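Service request form, structural biology core

Requester: graduate student, group of Dr. S.
Request type: structure prediction, single chain
Budget code: on file
Notes: please return the result as structure tokens.

Sequence provided:
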Amino acid sequence: MIARDTNMSLDMLEAYEYCRKITRRAAKTFYWGSLFLPYQKRQATWALYAFCRSVDDIADHPERHPDQLGDLACWHDRMLKVYDDIVSDPITLAWHDLLQTYPVPLEPALDLIAGMEMDLRHEEPSTFEDLHLYCYRVAGTVGLLMTPILGYSCASALPCAVDLGIAMQLTNILRDVGEDLHNGRIYLPREDLIRFDYSEADLRNQVIDDRFIALMQFEIARAEDYFNRARPGIEKLDSRAQLAIRASAEMYRGILPAIVENGYDVFTRRAYVPFSSKVMAMPRLWLDMKLGRGQIATQTHTHLAPQGIKS
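Core staff response, request fulfilled:
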């Protein structure tokens, strides 16, 4: 029996609709991909995303959350209670319901909250290992939460799911360099800036020159490498989920060549994949899946990969 942590009346359908609206508003690419899932899986992914979005908003919007660490601690407590059959709001109600069907683990959800705490205490990463830990916590964990909902044939799908989350987060970081600078954050590892003789002062002054282009090519190649690592895992997912994840992965990966097409200007221009391109890609993705051509289309810039990319 579900215990209520509040006197509010919670209706299951309304709870999922609440989560759907959050997903549709805040994550157009993710929402687009979710529409290709069977209905029950689709609802579960909306509940999962609504949780992720809620904790991410705490880190991103201090004006709405004066006590950010306190609010994250509240979510930590809420998630522990969900697994003890106690709910307090539409998101935890929907999450509790999905747990009746899908064995979604608790630990990655708590790790994700820890990643948001890292964001609040933001320390510029010195090495890629530092950045990798952050990317795992805020995005790789989502792969571990999603995979039990999607269904998978063998455990090797799980590290691939983590790699896909990391690939997407690296893509976010490259797309949002200018926005993050505006918010006082730098996510590009210091060792990479040094490698290309590009200083933090250059970054803050939005210098786009040969050094910056080489740096961005290196980072784009690293993100593409993680998309490639994730590729075999998609083939191990439930066949009913493969198209949705393949679509989400390819649409997200499409941001990387869009950065190149923008002349590597990640300071004043936002790279994105037009909706028309998403629609046009679907027949090819569906046909590739039906014919067993399971690979995500490799973008045109993987030849930029430098030797010895760290993993």
